[in-house]
Write a structure and sequence with these properties.
Layout lengths: L1 H25 L40 E2 L3 E2 L1 E3 H8 L4 E4 L15 E5 L2 E6 L2 E8 L6 E3 L2 E3 L5 H7 L1 H9 L5 E5 L9 E7 L2 E8 L3
Antiparallel strand pairs: 1-2, 1-8, 3-7, 4-5, 5-6, 6-7, 7-12, 8-9, 10-11, 11-12
Organism: Chitinophaga polysaccharea
Protein name: Lipoprotein
Length: 206
């Protein structure tokens, strides 16, 4: 009987030792050439979460108050504009089916000057797109924009709009509100080329 109990004890001990060896064999260890660095407190393995900015929190650029070369508004009469910056390079009639969004309820023509595009209805002009060329500027209050204005310059003036653009992966356009009314969905879009301001678009949704 003692021999039977002794044999069982030996078998049980052998089985436990084999199980422990199997567990050790399954533990992953670094290869001799690997260097395992401890995780430091300053290590940040997770990216900074993107914080989108609501449209009603984006800065306003009141385009209707902007002055060309400190002289004449973007929304003015043909007589005043031509007196300030010269006559149109060309005036082109529009077909109603070619216009997706207009600033005038009636028929109008496109008025082109130095690359800029205006809508001309009777004697009234409204800017669609302003192109920055040498010597041209736009001024609103204490803000002056030129072809030398950089993305970083705009980021200081309109930080929330710039951050939201970067959240969307854009560094070529910044979208601003054109009115303090929260339900307005029209935009002032600042487009950049090679890091510098190239044009301003008065975007009106269809």
């Amino acid at each position: 009987m003692k021999n039977v109990l002794l044999a069982c004890a030996v078998a049980l001990l052998t089985a436990c030792q084999q199980q422990k060896q199997d567990e050790l064999d399954t533990i992953a260890v670094a290869a001799p050439g690997d260097i395992v660095k401890p995780l430091m407190e300053d290590d940040d393995s997770l990216p900074e979460p993107r914080r989108d900015i609501n449209w009603d929190q984006i800065e306003v650029f009141p385009l209707s108050r902007a002055l060309i070369n400190h002289k004449v508004p973007l929304f003015t009469t043909r007589q005043h504009l031509e007196a300030a910056i010269g006559k149109a390079d060309s005036i082109v009639a529009t077909a109603s089916n070619d216009v997706s969004g207009s600033q005038f309820a009636g028929d109008f023509h496109y008025f082109y000057k130095d690359g800029a595009t205006f809508e001309l209805c009777r004697d009234s002009l409204a800017c669609d797109e302003f192109i920055f060329t040498t010597g041209n500027s736009l001024t609103v209050d204490n803000i002056t924009l030129t072809q030398n204005t950089t993305w970083e310059d705009i980021r200081k003036i309109f930080p929330r709009a710039a951050i939201q653009a970067e959240n969307e992966g854009r560094t070529d356009v910044i979208k601003l509100r054109d009115s303090f009314l929260k339900d307005e969905d029209s935009q002032v879009q600042l487009y950049f080329e090679n890091g510098k301001l190239a044009r301003v678009v008065n975007f009106i949704p269809c």
